[in-house]
Design a protein that fits this description.
The complex is a heterodimer of chains A (272) and B (157). With 272 residues, chain A is of the alpha+beta class. In chain A, α2 packs across α6 and α7 crosses α10. The longest helix of chain A is centred in the last third of the chain and has 13 residues. In chain A, the strands form five sheets. Chain A has a three-stranded mixed sheet with strand order 10-9-11. Chain A has a two-stranded antiparallel ribbon with strand order 1-2. Chain A is 33% helix and 11% strand. By secondary structure, chain B is mainly α. Chain B has a domain of 108 residues: Orthogonal Bundle (Cytochrome Bc1 Complex, Chain D, domain 2). Chain B is built from five helices and no strands. The longest helix of chain B has 14 residues. Chain B is globular. The chains are: A alpha+beta (272), B mainly alpha (157). Chains A and B meet through β7 and α9 of A and loops of B. Chain B: GO terms for molecular function: electron transfer activity; heme binding; metal ion binding. Chain B: Keywords: Heme, Iron, Metal-binding.
Amino acid sequence: AAPLYAASQPETVAPISINDAEIELATEAEAPAHLDGALPKIWSGWLFRDATTQSMQMDDFENPAMVFVDQGLDLWDQPDGAEGKSCADCHGSIDDSMKGVRAAMPKMSEDGTDLWSLENFVNNCRTTRMGAEAWGWSSAPMESMTLAISMASRGMPVDVAIDGPAQSWWDKGKEIYYSRYGQLQLSCANCHEDHYGDWIRADHLSQGQISGFPVYRLNGAGVVSIHERFFGCVRDTRAEPFAQGSPEFRALELYVSSRGMGLPVEGASVRH
Amino acid sequence: MSSHLWHAAVVATAMATPAICETAPKDVIYAEGAIETSLTGVAGNPEEGVRIMTTNALGNCVACHQIGALPDVEFPGNIAPALDGAGDRWTEAQLRGIVSNAKMTFEGTFMPAFYKVDGFTRPGDGFTGKAATEPLPPVLNAQQIEDVVAFLVTLKE
């Protein structure tokens, strides 16, 4: 949809240069073909943040998300549940075994009957393979673990499957993306497609990409999962959001991921 | 009951019960987007209108609109056209219609309807994230709409 009050492009599209250019993450990519021209280019949410917030993601020692990455790495090695096993016991090194995993999420479940987010895969191993309790969707251990797993895909382009059995999920997610919810009657697209680059009060609207998730948010000083962010955005339209982990939010996650195909997974990102 | 308390009770009832001549959201008649008659019959207060337009929990119009006449508002948004000169471009009746339900003037607009109580998808109870049953209270009540309109008509270039 052509915006009425032109969406503005970011002033620069410099890469996120981390640890004195040891790692460079592109902030711009070509819009994927399945967007049918809805966006001219796709941009990381990092570009729309102020310089102070941006700089926190440019040095791993200053990045407040790293504490949580470390907690996730500890959990990876820690036995839990009736089987007394740790993630490492089966998977070995997180860097090798989880490489590319975040970039392809969400995807069809192991038996192919459901669409699973990274959280579902983690809980499936916990409950069926470790005899441990499932973690809450946006609980502290789950957020630390998904953050640590995301680091193993740092710099790899988002690449989700949207055809075959995932197609109907993608269609459903697209429908949700363009639905105008709540008493304020606003859709994701109203803000993140028609008005990225504009200001909604003091907030600089991005394209609502999830290539940086889970993110560390300064506002709240903690890690925020994808579904937690979706929940907040829908709630702010004076609506009843879908539950975190619901089929609706998993479908939406697939669709929003697909809008970011080509942008690199940022691993531990920082937002305001 | 002391006379003081009795007074308070009368005032409370008066506030809870809409005046006889108040038009309920569902009874509003739009003529090409405009609402000809006042929703309350009571003249709007432009100063109160400014407060409503700049308060987050009320109109929060400045989330999207800039208003040159209100230079003290910090960080107004730029999603929507600046409201300077709105009083020249639109009649009072048209402005009443735009504030009550802008979708009757601008089809499919981003601007929320402030005097509408049903026909929503997954309506919530304010910003709590909990479900709510329609009809909801409108975002602004009838007198608040009149107050906002009373300020908008003063916005002349």
